[in-house]
Amino acid sequence: MSEHVILTEIVDRVGVIRLNRPEALNALNLAILNTVVEAAEAFQSDPNIMALVITGNDKAFAAGADIKEMADKSYIEMHQSDWFSQWTRFTDIRLPIVAAVNGFALGGGCELAMMADLIIAGPNTKFGQPEINLGVIPGMGGSQRLTRAVGKSKAMDMVLTGRMMDGEEAERAGLVARLVEDDKVFDTAMEVAQTIASKSRPVVMAAKEAVDTAFETSLTQGLLFERRAFHALFALEDQKEGMDAFSNKRRAQFQDR
Ligand code: HXC
Q1: Could you report the per-residue pLDDT of 179-236, keeping only the tens digit for each?
Q2: Transmembrane ranges (predicted)?
């Protein structure tokens, strides 16, 4: 058994969460759930942290929710504990989250990757929603987020047959933002996160909120939300700094205010 179910570190202004149950292909049990959300919230409360990277290991990002932990649960236990609802604390994180995904990202693993804001993967990454083979359906967002990411036909294919999709297919389908060599996945995710870290923290949060709003509202409401958020950013010193830096042909030095 791994002593620590996750490993965390801070690299410059990026908080890294590494799932660390290699003996169970990083199956997501309650201990992982709680430590991941606590770590993400702790990173967010540190004003120096600008973005998060979540990753696993070469063999598995995560092979799903922990089947052995769930197997004997009753309906009433699942219902009354509202099993998996705690993950909304992860999707409430306002900082951008980059998922660096190698190996298996199945069931809850695929769903956790989709809770991140963007996914970096390699050709040998294997995404899937195989819950149908266990006599259940996705329970951490697969039927909703996968459908929004890849459309109805492919989501139905994945959810109804339980087949896996490799990194290339996932990139073609729009699930993966950048497909890179398998051994470059983590470094690329860190580069993306470091690039975000060079921006203004409140502006980054506003940008994430605006894109997320596209999934929650009508176009008219979303456009209004975007425009009002855009207007509000003119209250920031970082807006003045960004536009002054452009005019004076220099690099902006954002102060996060
Ligand atoms: C618990 C798991 C696990 C999981 C793997 N393990 N996935 N334990 N929950 N989701 C454990 C295995 O039992 C095994 O432990 C060890 O990890 C290594 O796995 P192997 O199967 O021996 O590895 P391999 O032969 O390489 O096969 C890899 C695999 C397979 C194809 C990914 O492990 C697999 O099919 N896993 C389950 C994938 C899945 O169905 N995911 C969805 C879960 S449900 P031991 O002790 O035997 O060495 C879900 C959402 C549920 O995520 C929502 C409903 C409410």
Answers
A1: 999 999 999 999 999 999 999 999 999 999 999 999 999 999 999 999 999 999 999 9
A2: none
Give yes or no: 108 in active site: yes
What does the chain come to in residues?
Answer: 257
CA–CA separation, 89 and 41 (whole Å):
8
Token representation of residue 145: 């987020």
CATH code of residue 207: 1.10.12.10
Q: From atom 43 of ligand 1, which residue's Cα is the shortest distance away?
A: 64
Name which residue sits closest to atom 14 of ligand 1, judged by CA. 24
- Integer Cα distance of 23 and 256 in angstroms: 41
- Under DSSP, is residue 19 helix (H, G, I), strand (E, B) or coil? strand
Q: Are 142 and 101 in contact (CB under 8 A)?
A: no
> Residue 76 C-alpha to ligand 1 middle, in angstroms?
24
pTM (2 d.p.)? 0.97
Q: Quick one: 169 and 208 in the same domain? A: no
Contact 3, 35 (CB under 8 A): no
pLDDT tens for residues 72-122? 999 999 999 999 999 999 999 999 999 999 999 999 999 999 999 999 999
